[in-house]
């Protein structure tokens, strides 16, 4: 870390020391005793601009009571199961350096069994559990700060229907960008079909260099490359050779399943913290509504570019099908001629 970076962190820390008490309290949950490392990641996300980093930092957490979200279970259990079945995300293990490995079923997530607020609540709860429980535990175990994770994105099943999910995905990614910056070291993309390749080709030039360097598109299921950074037991199920992506797996290996140890631990943690407030588990509870931040201009451009590319592919497919139908009809007429 250079002199300029250290000076920026010092300046940022002075501003945080002057912050009002609610902001200081929520920042304690954010930095988990690794103060300078976390100041650094907010600064890095804003190109070391102290004013921009300070603006993005904590107000959203206070205004939306994020500190209490790990005591807000999604109930009843059937609803939580529906969320897990349609928002495919889980933790499969750790890298050899101790970073949590999060698996995301991009192609097969449908987001069609609950309201958008439940999916956002679930996503933030996973973020908070990662930052408050998993990362501090691994930092203690390894004797050094571990403040980020890696993500493996499974594109199995990615279809043109992804158009309907762009708005929700933009909301979630904007929340991450503004409030959980630099929490992912690397994104590994696996099982990528043509539709992903076409979209990636036009989106890649729009990304900041820092972001582009984090994305690695791997061949096939990516197992050989991923085994360089993690053991086989930490591989997501869809990366194990012989699997068929997110849709074929055993429940014990499927880190997306509500029955996987990670999701059981998370759900029990949230339930326990609800009950310690002196209340029995509610039979039904509304979703935890969070204010959706406005996406930055860059993210809007990316979303529109993806949408445009998907429409192009859709139109090409429709044209090809129409041409094929006309050809088949013409061939049938020729066959019917005496």
UniProtKB/TrEMBL annotation:
Supply the SUPFAM superfamilies for this chain: CRAL/TRIO domain, CRAL/TRIO N-terminal domain
Q: Please name the Pfam families in this protein's record.
A: CRAL_TRIO (PF00650), CRAL_TRIO_N (PF03765)
- The CRAL-TRIO domain, residue ranges: 76-236
Q: InterPro entries, alphabetically?
A: CRAL-TRIO_dom, CRAL-TRIO_dom_sf, CRAL/TRIO_N_dom, CRAL/TRIO_N_dom_sf
Q: Record's superkingdom?
A: Eukaryota
* The name this protein goes by in its record: SEC14 cytosolic factor-like
> Encoded by which gene?
LOC104772061
